[in-house]
């Protein structure tokens, strides 16, 4: 068996065996296959695709390329979610405590952000003292004590994905559904949860730009999850405007805390409750999803959800006084309010433009080495369908970069478009079982 013969097979659209795929991944991770040969194979895969079995074998080999986190010592049913990435998306911070509040175990391994804003880990680290680097023992103990913990992905988890993703990025082979699916699912399977819901974003602020491609990706990932004996479902959600009103790190944590108290934006609550109700029903907690939604809405208002968030923060070393008093979060010093130059219903808020604006304010990274300004970001005062009078506040930006304020303010203003008619913005576009 050798790499040239394998490239030749895929070049002619022939199916690769499990042994061939395992050979590829093992030898690439060990440095025995050079980047130029793996690049050739990736391009052959890009054009000739992988079938479901090949994708499963690829995902399995990637999982086995490193360590896995066993959760057999954790009592209860373990659940997880994954988002393909969007703007103003702090669902994990709301969903996790909600799941813990109904007795499910929310065991989450998250990453840092590279793009519009920080990732879940960056957001949580805006809470002073919050520790995302738990040992396996601490992680398991916290899950048994409070049913919730969020940790960072270590270098030993799915090392093949890190190598392949960097190569795909450099060879224009990122947007292939099999390669995307294996990248996402390998990290999910490495953490041994019982049930998973995938939130596949579609629209201007998402990686997937149309519902058709998002559906193809969702169906493949759901099928893959089931082949690994994981209860798996997906929802396709609209990312043509930011999900929440807050885009940033501290700002999104504050908004998540408000949502956990039943006082957050409707869209963030709707997505969190929808995913949570699916997980509850999948795990046999309720007869149907409607019953689950009622329980979750109630827990956002009776204090159970926010208490679980505080438990997690305390167990992971964070200062819970920030949860009790969100005014303690230090926002960036420069504050700029942006007002509307016209009247009408908000027709669109370009999520990508808002995301880029947030990054330029200091809330996101261009490279892994960039240092985040955790207090930077944007607060939207209006969303699609809201009526705006000329001169009314559209958004507020926060930054410590005085030189970017004028350009970013103009970018935010231009991201808004208006209409004489009210737009009907559908948030959840499709559900994949």
Task: Describe this structure as you would to a colleague.
Helix content is 45%, strand content 16%. It is of the alpha/beta class. It has a 6-stranded mixed beta sheet with strand order 3-2-1-4-5-13, with helices on both faces. A 4-stranded antiparallel beta sheet has the order 6-9-11-7, with helices on both faces. The longest helix is centred in the middle third of the chain and has 17 residues, at 211-227. The mean pLDDT is 94.
Summarize the structure.
The protein is an alpha/beta fold.
CATH architecture of the largest domain: 3-Layer(aba) Sandwich
CATH superfamily of the largest domain: Nucleoside phosphorylase/phosphoribosyltransferase catalytic domain
- The secondary-structure element order is HHHHEHEHHEHHEHEEHHHHHEEHEEEHEE
CATH structural class of the largest domain: Alpha Beta
Quantity of strands, as a count? 13
Q: What's the gyration radius in Å?
A: 22 Å
* Mean pLDDT reading: 94
SSE class: alpha/beta
Task: Report how far the terminal alpha carbons are from each other.
Answer: 38 Å
The biggest sheet, with number of strands, parallel, antiparallel or mixed sense and barrel status, is:
6 strands, mixed
Q: How many discrete structural domains?
A: 3
What kind of assembly state do the chains in view correspond to?
single chain
Q: Strand fraction band?
A: 15-25%
Within the CATH hierarchy, at the fold level, what is the topology of the largest domain?
Answer: Pyrimidine Nucleoside Phosphorylase, Chain A, domain 2
So what's the overall shape? globular
Query: What share of residues is helical?
Result: 40-55%
């Amino acid at each position: 068996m050798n790499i040239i013969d394998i490239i030749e097979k895929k070049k002619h659209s022939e199916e690769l065996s499990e042994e061939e795929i395992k050979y590829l991944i093992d030898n690439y991770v060990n440095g025995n296959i050079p980047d130029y040969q793996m690049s050739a194979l990736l391009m052959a895969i890009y054009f000739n695709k992988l079938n479901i079995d090949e994708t499963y074998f690829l995902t399995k080999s990637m999982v086995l390329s490193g360590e896995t986190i066993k959760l057999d010592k954790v009592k209860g049913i373990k659940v997880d979610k994954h988002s393909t990435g969007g703007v103003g998306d702090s669902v994990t911070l709301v969903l996790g405590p909600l799941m813990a509040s109904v007795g499910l175990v929310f065991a989450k391994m998250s990453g840092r952000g590279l793009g519009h804003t920080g990732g879940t880990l960056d957001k949580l680290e805006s809470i002073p003292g919050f520790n995302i680097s738990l040992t396996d023992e601490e992680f398991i103990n916290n899950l048994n004590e409070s049913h919730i913990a969020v940790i960072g992905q270590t270098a030993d988890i799915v090392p093949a994905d890190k190598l392949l993703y960097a190569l795909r990025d450099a060879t224009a082979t990122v947007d292939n559904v099999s390669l995307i699916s294996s990248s996402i699912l390998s990290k999910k399977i490495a953490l041994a949860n019982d049930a998973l819901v995938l939130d596949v974003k579609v629209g201007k602020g998402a990686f997937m730009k149309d519902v058709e491609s998002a559906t193809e990706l969702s169906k493949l990932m759901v099928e893959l999850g089931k082949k690994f004996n994981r209860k798996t479902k997906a929802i396709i959600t609209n990312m043509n405007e930011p999900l929440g009103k807050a885009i940033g790190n501290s700002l999104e944590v504050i908004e998540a805390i408000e949502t956990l108290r039943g006082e957050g934006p409707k869209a963030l609550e709707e997505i969190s409750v929808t995913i949570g109700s699916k997980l509850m029903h999948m795990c046999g907690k309720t007869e149907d999803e409607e019953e689950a939604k009622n329980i979750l809405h109630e827990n956002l208002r009776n204090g159970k959800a926010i208490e679980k968030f505080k438990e997690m923060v305390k167990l992971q070393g964070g200062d819970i006084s920030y949860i009790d008093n969100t005014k303690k979060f230090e926002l960036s010093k420069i504050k700029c309010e942006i007002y509307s130059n016209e009247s009408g219903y908000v027709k669109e808020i370009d999520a990508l433009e808002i995301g880029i604006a947030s990054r330029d304010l200091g809330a996101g990274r261009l490279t892994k080495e960039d240092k985040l300004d955790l207090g930077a970001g944007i607060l939207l005062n209006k969303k699609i369908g809201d009526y705006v009078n000329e001169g009314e506040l559209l958004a507020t930006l926060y930054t410590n970069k005085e030189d970017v304020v004028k350009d970013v303010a103009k970018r935010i203003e231009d991201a808004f478009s208006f209409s004489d008619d009210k737009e009907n913005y559908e948030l959840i576009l499709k559900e994949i079982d």
